[in-house]
Amino acid sequence: MMLEIKNLHASINGKEILKGINLSVKEGEVHAIMGPNGSGKSTLSSVLVGNPAFTVTEGEVTFNGKNLLELSAEDRSREGLFLSFQYPVEIPGVSMVNFMRAAVNAHRQYKGLPAVSATDFLKMMREKRAIVELDNKLASRSVNEGFSGGEKKRNEIFQMAMLEPKLSILDETDSGLDIDALRIVANGVNKLKTPENAAIVITHYQRLLDYIKPDVVHVLYKGRIVKTAGPELALELEEKGYDWIKREMGD
Amino acid sequence: MKTEQQYIDLFTQYEDLICKNSSPVMNAPRAEAFAAFERNGFPSLKSEDYKYTDVQKAFAPDYGLNLNRLYIPVNPYDVFRCDVPNLSTSLYFMVNDIFYDKALPKGHLPEGVYAGSLKVFTERYPQIAAQYYAHAALPDANDPIVPLNTMLAQDGFVLYVPKNIAVERTIQLVNIFRGDKDMMANRRILVIIEPGATARMLVCDHSIDDVKFLGTQVVEAFIGEGASFDYYDLEESNSSTMRFSSFFLKQAANTNVVVNGITLTNGLSCNNYYVSLDGENGEISLCGMSVLDKEQHLDTHTLIQHHVPHCKSNELFKYVLNDRAIGAFSGRIWVKEGADKTEAYQTNRNLCATRETRMYSKPQLEIYADDVKCSHGMTTGQLDENAMFYMRSRGIPPEEARMLLSVAFTSDVIEHIRIPALKDRLHNLVEKRFRGELAKCEGCRICK
């Protein structure tokens, strides 16, 4: 098992958002997590990557046999966890090339590998940006600064391609994307899929799942996973909305 | 008047010796300067402008002065092997406050341009020199250093560029503090850029010994109509160095000037900038940045005076403070009556990495004209937590993320530099400074 979440509770500013999440993800799998606004989807992704704004109050998370919750945010990344941010952060003055080189070399150092040479690194940047159709100006631009919404999301997938994570969490990567950008992003994700890695796709809509086919679909509601089924569940939600789930839950 | 007394005694006793080893033009304003010093003394901590820098304490110890102009053994080229990639400069040295004439660059300067000893220049060209020397830095100006410096300075550096001459090569002046015992040096820099001329100067301050150094420096720069001038000032001294520098800039019409002061390593520095926009369509970009840690101290005062219409000033100062460092910035823009269509912008942004650092900032805007565009803004804070987390979530170690963000924070100040090779070099130096690889001055890092 790659990721095993057991009875995870988490809160922000004393308010409990996650109220006992259980989830297991195996190599090669794609899981979709859907659910109405405010159900805790983004909190789950934030907690998994170690965002210090959230406090885990109960439960455990194992990632490749390690206690994930004990690791620093940077070590979670180096262990192979990746979050494609719903709102990627703009960092004026830090170029993509310096940012990515620092990240890639930190990953390499963690694995006991020497720093990558300048030539190899630029070649790697070139290959990976092609996956999401970003142009050669990318390297010299400041991280996400002045990027359009679509460019920001493509940049997230570019970073994913550079870091080759074992488990990627895509947090509403489809939000704010037009249909072309959506296709580019989804194609990028599909190209990076291997039998050894896995993905958790957080989304409101079926349209992303038309491109990235999930093996399992979960519905998150009020901080718990209340329904788990195959890809057909996503279609059903698209058609009927979330009200029937709420009714089933007695709301 | 305890602190002042030793300087009053010194001047009274040694006036003849000071004058003998200087030039008539430099001697002319001494008496007036002395009178002003006796009258005003040093500002106390109670004075509004100097409440963060104890000037009296800095000047209280008994430093040695080299009034006899004895040769201090040093070969600057042993300290500085200057070979900047893609930046070839005409390189000059000053050791403490004496111009070093043993090694001069050859054949680089266009005809009529003079770069070298201020003492020699004022002796050789008294008519020109007397028109400018001590004409911007008036002893009565409300500056703590000018009277003392004017009364004690015996030499310095001059750059004179005649009408319509463009000096392509950057003039680099390396100031070296060196001594076997505690030393005081009083240095003077005079820059005369005649109408239509162009020049760029890079001034680097270094200390190579661990004794205490106290330096005063007065820079006067006169920029003639239609001229363009750059002045880059880089301090890489050490923790036992104190520097009091006052920079006076007078700009005629249609001039374009960039001044950029960078403090990478120092002890205590007090940098004053006075800009006077005297002719229409003058433009000044006045910038500065500093990286301060441990007990480093930097106090910057700026005064930009818009006397006439249609001038533009752009001011940007950034401080990064760590450990117990202290920073102060007091910036004043003064738009005089009638200076319509003035554009004046001032920004001061500061990063405090620890709770023990102190940053005092005082932006001041005084406008007595109509129809102007002016703004000032000041922020003091910490590194962006969201950016920190974003970088860490990519595996970047927190200390590396902090370094990258700090470098980014200061990079726009360096972007104002108009010499590409120097800009690259400084980006690199600042990064090294943040990485802690510039802990101590080991010579001119512009060049290594």
Could you explain the architecture of this structure?
The complex is a heterodimer of chains A (251) and B (448). Chain A has nine helices and twelve strands. With 251 residues, chain A is an alpha/beta fold. Chain A has a single domain, classed as P-loop containing nucleotide triphosphate hydrolases (Rossmann fold). Chain A has a six-stranded mixed sheet with strand order 6-9-10-3-11-12, sandwiched between helices. A four-stranded antiparallel sheet of chain A has the order 2-1-4-5, with helices on one face. Chain A has a two-stranded antiparallel ribbon with strand order 7-8. In chain A, helix 4 crosses helix 5. Chain A is globular and about 60 Å long. Chain A starts with a strand and ends with a helix. The mean pLDDT of chain A is 95. Chain B is α/β, with parallel strands linked by helices. Chain B has one domain. Chain B contains eleven helices and 20 strands. In chain B, strands 1, 4, 5, 7, 9, 11, 13, 15, 17 and 19 form a ten-stranded mixed sheet that branches. In chain B, helix 3 runs antiparallel to helix 8, helix 6 crosses helix 7 and helix 9 packs across helix 10. The C terminus of chain B is likely disordered. The chains are: A alpha/beta (251), B alpha/beta (448). At the A-B interface, helix 2, strand 7, helix 3 and strand 8 of A face helix 9 and helix 10 of B.
**Biggest β-sheet strands, sense, barrel of chain A:** 6 strands, mixed
Overall outline of chain A: globular
| Rg from Cα of chain B | 21 Å
**Order of SSEs of chain A:** EEEHEEHEEHHEHEHEHEEHH
What percent of residues of chain B adopt helix (DSSP H or I)?
10-25%
How large is the count of helical segments of chain A? 9
Q: Count of helical segments of chain B?
A: 11
What structural category do the secondary elements of chain A indicate? alpha/beta
Q: How many DSSP-defined strands of chain B?
A: 20
Mean pLDDT of chain A: 95
Q: Give the amount of beta strand of chain A, in percent.
A: 25-35%
Task: Provide the domain count of chain B.
Answer: 1
| Domain unit count of chain A | 1
